[in-house]
């Protein structure tokens, strides 16, 4: 048995000026046999594919795997390069392939394509044939068009945000593919769209109401003939026609059961639409920082400030306010600023520096902040991840520096990353417990670690690129009836 595997992922903020280039993707891309070596044992969809297929003695044809993160619209060149590679390599062995596993995202938008994932699967289908099963693994934040079900045999999505189950999602897709090839199941996939899009900060499956929806999913999974169930919460800042939540069920030749499942989950999501789109306990920047400082005075563990709207990892709204309010014992990890990192590395450890930091993107970033401080650490920010999401994966922050600015521990990096585990602190000789306040620019992924590390999470809705209020942007492609963009009660 021979299975082809390939992946291409991006979470696209269509309002972000400019484009994400092929160079941005290639920095972390894998091709050919190197893919298996890099992904084996990792918490990735591809890692899950490899795990199941190698365990079952399946021969793998690895093509490519590339992830461009969450940035601006993807250039056409990216799609043409990677999908062209998939077509070329799968065509060479199309007669030998028994099936294909694809690791995609669900919210990738290119210069010419809104529903990119459907087009990817369609192009792969064209070269491998209509009779070969194609299973697709996707991110929980995908915006799905039902058209993808005409091309994919089945789809599986993350069931957790934070995405601690990326590898398990790959395993689910691989198990379903092998069961199909062995004749054990005949997959039927059904989708429902409740007409609702959820800002990512409200999609955390560790808290209600998203947690309750996943609990209902778990109950449905116990039903006989159920193969797989997913709830896709959507990605709110993509102006595409398929924007919004999707519920998906795969059954063993039982379309009626699949329909009952997806309709029930979609109904539950709609009933919780206000909590899923507005949330509770959101603070503006000034009030949130003030509250965190006050709570930190008596807390036994760090207070976590969640600056969730920052997609560029260089917005300065929270940092500026922390300095203005003279916050004590604060860690601000992973502020992306290549120029500041370069200067600190040139000056060296122990040097006193005067810098403008952050606000380099020039789009809803708050502008640079002038700081004075001492360089505590400088060097190459490269390490192997130990946290639940990045375990075993290489992280390359590029030239990196840590600066003491008043009572703020400020880490500046060359490449973008989010604080979703303790590695950006511990890999540099510190501990999370060294600080009274820690700032993260994650949305939900930090919760896998910081719900335990921190005493309380303070959500600050700063005016970054992806605020909780989607009314900030003007959507042109979203059809009527998608709440809360075009509200209906």
Quick tags:
single chain; 489 residues; Rossmann fold; 2 domains; 9-stranded mixed β-sheet; 6-stranded mixed β-sheet
Lay out the secondary structure.
Layout: E1 2-12, H1 22-26, E2 30-31, H2 33-39, H3 45-55, E3 59-71, H4 76-92, E4 99-103, H5 116-128, E5 134-138, E6 154-157, H6 166-181, E7 187-192, H7 210-221, E8 226-232, E9 246-252, H8 255-271, H9 273-278, E10 282-283, H10 285-296, E11 303-307, H11 317-324, E12 330-336, H12 338-347, E13 352-357, E14 369-384, E15 394-405, E16 408-413, H13 423-426, E17 437-440, H14 447-453, E18 456-460
Parallel strand pairs: 1-3, 1-4, 4-5, 5-6, 10-18, 11-17, 11-18, 12-16, 12-17
Antiparallel strand pairs: 2-3, 7-9, 8-9, 13-14, 14-15, 15-16
Helix pairs in contact: 3-6, 4-5, 7-8, 10-11
Supply the helix-strand structural class: alpha/beta
Number of helices: 14
CATH names the topology of the largest domain as Rossmann fold
* Top CATH class of the largest domain: Alpha Beta
Globally, the shape reads globular
CATH architectural designation of the largest domain: 3-Layer(aba) Sandwich
Record the strand order, biggest sheet: 10-18-11-17-12-16-15-14-13
What amount of the residues lies in strands? 25-35%
Distance between the termini: 51 Å
Largest sheet: number of strands, sense, barrel closure: 9 strands, mixed
- Overall number of domains: 2
| Residue windows where pLDDT falls under 50 for at least 5 positions | none
How many β-strands, per DSSP? Answer: 18
CATH H-level superfamily of the largest domain: Flavodoxin domain
Radius of gyration: 22 Å
Amount of helix: 25-40%
Q: Estimate the mean pLDDT confidence.
A: 97
């Amino acid at each position: 048995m021979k299975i082809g595997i390939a992946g291409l992922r991006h979470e696209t903020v269509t309002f972000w000026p400019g484009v994400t280039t092929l160079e941005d993707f290639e920095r972390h891309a894998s091709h050919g046999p190197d893919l298996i070596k890099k992904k084996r044992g990792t918490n990735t969809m591809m890692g899950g594919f490899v795990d199941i297929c190698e365990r079952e003695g399946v021969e793998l044809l690895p093509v490519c795997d590339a992830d461009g993160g969450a940035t601006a619209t993807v250039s056409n060149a990216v799609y043409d390069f990677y999908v062209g590679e998939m077509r070329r390599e799968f065509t060479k062995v199309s007669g030998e392939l028994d099936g294909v596993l694809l690791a995609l995202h669900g919210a990738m938008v290119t210069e010419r394509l809104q529903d990119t994932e459907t087009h990817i699967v369609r192009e792969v289908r064209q070269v491998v044939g209509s009779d070969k099963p194609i299973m697709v693994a996707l991110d929980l934040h995908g915006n799905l068009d039902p058209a993808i079900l005409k091309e994919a045999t089945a789809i599986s999505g993350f069931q957790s945000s934070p995405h601690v189950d990326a590898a398990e999602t790959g395993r689910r897709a691989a198990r379903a593919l092998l069961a199909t090839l062995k004749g054990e199941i005949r997959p039927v996939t059904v989708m429902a769209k409740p007409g609702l899009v959820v800002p990512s900060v409200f999609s955390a499956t560790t808290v209600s109401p998203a947690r309750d929806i996943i609990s209902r999913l778990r109950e449905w999974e116990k039903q006989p003939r159920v193969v797989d169930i997913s709830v896709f919460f959507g990605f709110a800042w993509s102006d595409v026609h398929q924007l919004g939540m999707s519920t998906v069920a795969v059954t063993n030749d039982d379309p009626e059961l699949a329909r009952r499942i997806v309709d029930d989950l979609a109904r539950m999501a709609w009933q919780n639409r206000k909590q899923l789109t507005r949330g509770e306990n959101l603070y503006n920047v000034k009030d949130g920082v003030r509250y965190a400082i006050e709570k930190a005075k008596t807390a036994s563990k760090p207070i976590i400030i969640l600056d969730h709207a920052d997609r560029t990892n260089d917005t300065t709204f929270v940092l500026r306010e922390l300095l203005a309010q003279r916050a004590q014992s604060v860690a601000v990890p992973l502020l992306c600023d290549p120029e500041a990192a370069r200067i600190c590395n040139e000056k060296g450890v122990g040097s006193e520096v005067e810098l403008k930091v952050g606000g380099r993107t020039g789009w809803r970033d708050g502008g640079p902040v002038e700081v004075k401080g001492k360089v505590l650490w400088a060097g190459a920010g490269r390490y192997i991840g130990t946290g639940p999401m990045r375990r075993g994966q290489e992280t390359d922050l590029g030239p990196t520096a840590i600066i003491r600015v008043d009572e703020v521990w400020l880490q500046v990096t060359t490449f973008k990353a989010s604080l979703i585990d303790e590695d950006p602190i511990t890999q540099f000789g510190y501990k999370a417990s060294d600080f009274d306040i820690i700032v993260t620019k994650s949305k939900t992924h930090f919760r896998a670690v910081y719900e335990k590390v921190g005493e309380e999470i303070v959500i600050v809705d700063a005016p970054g690129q992806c605020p909780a209020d989607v009314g900030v942007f003007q959507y042109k492609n979203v059809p009527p009836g998608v709440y809360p963009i075009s509200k209906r009660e």
